[in-house]
Design goal:
With 559 residues, the chain is α/β, with parallel strands linked by helices. Helices cover 31% and strands 18% of the residues. The chain is built from 16 helices and 20 strands. The strands form five sheets. Strands 1-7-6-5-4-2-3 form a seven-stranded parallel beta sheet, sandwiched between helices. Strands 16-17-18-20-19 form a five-stranded mixed beta barrel. A three-stranded parallel beta sheet has the order 8-11-12, with helices on both faces. β6, α5 (155-163) and β7 form a beta-alpha-beta unit. α10 (287-294) runs parallel beside α12 (324-337). It is globular, with a radius of gyration of 24 Å.
Length: 559
C-alpha cells in the first residue's frame, strides 16, 4: 500500500476497529492492551509501532462548541491509551491534532501556522473542525488527514492511520456525534454540552453553516442524561453551547425554555447553568420565558446576543433577519426583567456597503447599552460566501472604524457600582501566570456573571465564597474572601477526573492546578469551623489581595 495514499474512508484501509467505548465522562477506562500488560506486571515503553502508546498534542481554535468537540476527541484518545500533551510538550508529541475554526481569517491563519510548524517538525498533522469540513480543498490542508465535525467519534481510527503514514479524510455528514462519549474536560469543574448543531440562518458573511450544516437539535432525553452524568462526576458549572441556542428544538417541536426548565430542575443546589449564544430572531418569540429562566437562582444572568451592526441597512445586507429595533426589544426586555444581567454582543466593522452613517448608528447603539462584553471584528471576506463577492469598504476605513469603536468600548466601565459590596461567587478556574515568579489568581463569577479575581488558594477551587470587592476594572473586579459558603462538589468519579485531567489541558495549557478529595476535605473543615462544628484540622479563612496576575479576559463566545 502506498503510505502517502489518500482514501475517502478509513474502511478502505482496515476492518472496523472493535474498540469498546468508555463510560460517559472523564473516568478513564484502560485500553485492553495496556490492561493486559498491567495484569501481567509489565510496564511497556511507548512504541511507534504499537497503536495507543504514542503522545498526541491537541490544539483547539474557536467557540465553546469546538472546545466540547476537542474534549470528546481527547477522551476517546486517552481511553484508547494515547497520552495527551499540552503546548509546552508539543515537540515530544508523535502526532498533532488541530481543531479548526472558520469564523474569522486570523484563526484560520493561526491554524496554517501551526500546520507549517508541525510539518517542519516532521509530525503527522490531523485537522478537525469547521475548516476541514467547509474547505477541505484548501492548499494548506493538502496531504493531511481530515476529520469532519460529524466524524469526531472516529478520531482514534484517524490517529492510528496517520501514525502509520496514511492519509484519510472523513468528511461525510452523518448523525450528530453522541453525547455519551468519554471526555477529558479542559476544566474539570466545567461541563460543556452542545444542545444543537448548525443554524437556521443564511448570513451573507458566515461560513459556519457550510461546516455545521442546518439546525439539528439533540433530543431532550439525551441532554438530560448528559447533564445527570456531569453532575454525578462533580462539575460545578454546565455551559450550554450551540451556533444558536434560541433556535433549539424548532426541528423537534420543542424549545429552549422547555429544555432549560427541565435542566434547572436537575441542577443541584450550588451548581450553575450558563446559556450560550442566541441570535435575536428566535429569542424574540420567547422573551418572557427566557427572562424568567435567566432569573432562576441556579442559572447565570448572562446571555450572548450578537447584534453585528446598529444599522438596519447593514443588517439587511448581512441577512440577519431582524432589525435594530427588534434587537433593542430583546435587550430592553431582558435588562428590565433579569436583575444584574450581563448582556454580551458582537459587532462587525466594515461590512461591504457600510457607510459612515451606518457606522455612527452602531456607535450610538453601544453608547446606549454600554455592553460589558463586546467582541469587535473587522469584516473578513470568507471564501464562498455572498459577502466575499461584494464591493469592500477600503481597508484603511475599516481599520479606522474598528479603532473608533474600540476606543468607545474602552472609554467606559460597568462594574464601578460593585466597589466595596459583598458578593457570593463560585470559583471554577485560575488565571495564567504572566511572568516568572508571579502567582495565579482564582477566577470566580457571581450570579450576574461578573468575573471576580481572588487570592490563589487552591482549596477554594469549586467553592462558593462570600467576598468583598476591593477594586473594579474594565473586565473584572478584585475581591478578598470573607468566608466559605459551600465546599466544592465531590464524588468518587470527580476526584479521579481532577487527578486525570487537571494537569493536562488538551486545548490550551498543560499546567492547570489540581483539585480533588483533599481540597474538598480542607474546605469542608473550614465550613464546619465557621458553623461551630468541631473538626480535628479546621483552619481559619485566609484573606489576602494580589494584583500582579495577568488580567482576565471576557467570557468565551459561542458560534
Amino acid at each position: 500500500m502506498d503510505p502517502c495514499s489518500t482514501n475517502d474512508d478509513i474502511e478502505d484501509l482496515m476492518p472496523q476497529l472493535e474498540t469498546q467505548r468508555a463510560a460517559t465522562g472523564v473516568r478513564i477506562k484502560q485500553h485492553s492492551l495496556s490492561k493486559a500488560r498491567a495484569d501481567a506486571g509489565e510496564v511497556a515503553a511507548p512504541s511507534a509501532h504499537v497503536p495507543g502508546t504514542q503522545k498526541v498534542y491537541v490544539k483547539t481554535y474557536g467557540c465553546s462548541h469546538n472546545a466540547s468537540d476537542s474534549e470528546y476527541m481527547a477522551g476517546l484518545l486517552q481511553d484508547y491509551g494515547y497520552t495527551l500533551v499540552g503546548e509546552a510538550s508539543r515537540e515530544e508529541a508523535d502526532v498533532w491534532l488541530i481543531n479548526s475554526c472558520t469564523v474569522k481569517n486570523p484563526s484560520q491563519d493561526h491554524m496554517a501556522t501551526d500546520i507549517a510548524r508541525g510539518r517542519a517538525m516532521d509530525k503527522p498533522v490531523i485537522v478537525a473542525g469547521c475548516v476541514s469540513q467547509a474547505e477541505p480543498s484548501l492548499n494548506t490542508l493538502q496531504g493531511l488527514s481530515l476529520i469532519g465535525v460529524q466524524q469526531i467519534e472516529r478520531v482514534v481510527d484517524v490517529v492510528r492511520e496517520a501514525l502509520a503514514g496514511n492519509t484519510v479524510r472523513l468528511l461525510e455528514r452523518r448523525v450528530r456525534p453522541s453525547l455519551d462519549l468519554p471526555k477529558v474536560r479542559r476544566n474539570p469543574l466545567v461541563e460543556i454540552i452542545p444542545i444543537n448543531t448548525g443554524c437556521l440562518g443564511s448570513c451573507t458573511y458566515c461560513k459556519t453553516v457550510y461546516a455545521r450544516g442546518r439546525l439539528g437539535s439533540y433530543e431532550p432525553s439525551a441532554l438530560l442524561s448528559r447533564l445527570d452524568s456531569a453532575v454525578a462526576e462533580g462539575v460545578a458549572e454546565v455551559w450550554l453551547t450551540s451556533e444558536d441556542a434560541g433556535a433549539y428544538g424548532r426541528d423537534l417541536g420543542s424549545s429552549l425554555p422547555s429544555l432549560l426548565e427541565a435542566m434547572l430542575e436537575r441542577v443541584p443546589e450550588g451548581r450553575m447553568l450558563r446559556v450560550g449564544m442566541t441570535n435575536p430572531p428566535y429569542i424574540l418569540q420567547q422573551l418572557p420565558a427566557i427572562a424568567k429562566l435567566l432569573s432562576h437562582p441556579r442559572c447565570y444572568a448572562f446571555l450572548h446576543v450578537p447584534v453585528q451592526s446598529g444599522s438596519n441597512r447593514v443588517l439587511h445586507t448581512m441577512r440577519r433577519e431582524y432589525t435594530r429595533e427588534e434587537f433593542c426589544r430583546v435587550a430592553d426586555t431582558l435588562l428590565a426583567s433579569v436583575p444584574s444581567l450581563l448582556l454580551a454582543t458582537d459587532i462587525i466593522c466594515g461590512m461591504p456597503g457600510e457607510t459612515e452613517e451606518d457606522h455612527q448608528q452602531t456607535l450610538a447603539l453601544v453608547r446606549k447599552y454600554r455592553f460589558p462584553v463586546l467582541n469587535i471584528s473587522q469584516f473578513y471576506p470568507r471564501p464562498g460566501t455572498l459577502a466575499a463577492k461584494m464591493k469592500r469598504v477600503p481597508t484603511h476605513v475599516v481599520k479606522e472604524r474598528t479603532r473608533e469603536l474600540s476606543a468607545l468600548f474602552n472609554s467606559y466601565t460597568t462594574f464601578d457600582t460593585l466597589l466595596n459590596t459583598t458578593l457570593e461567587v463560585l470559583v471554577t478556574d485560575s488565571t495564567a501566570v504572566s511572568r516568572p515568579g508571579a502567582t495565579p489568581q482564582l477566577i470566580a463569577h457571581d450570579k450576574g456573571y461578573v468575573q471576580v479575581l481572588l487570592p490563589y488558594v487552591p482549596e477554594h477551587m469549586g467553592c462558593w465564597l462570600q467576598v468583598r470587592v476591593t477594586h473594579t476594572s474594565k473586565f473584572h473586579v478584585l475581591a478578598t474572601v470573607l468566608r466559605v459558603l459551600r465546599p466544592p462538589p465531590s464524588s468518587a468519579s470527580a476526584d479521579k477526573a481532577t487527578v486525570d485531567a487537571a494537569g493536562v489541558d488538551p486545548t490550551l495549557s498543560p499546567d492547570r492546578p489540581k483539585t480533588g478529595r483533599k481540597a474538598a476535605d480542607a474546605v469542608k473543615q473550614q465550613v464546619n469551623a465557621q458553623n461551630g462544628i468541631a473538626s480535628p484540622d479546621a483552619s481559619s479563612e485566609r484573606v489576602a489581595t494580589t494584583e500582579h496576575a495577568a488580567p482576565a479576559l471576557p467570557p468565551p463566545a459561542d458560534g
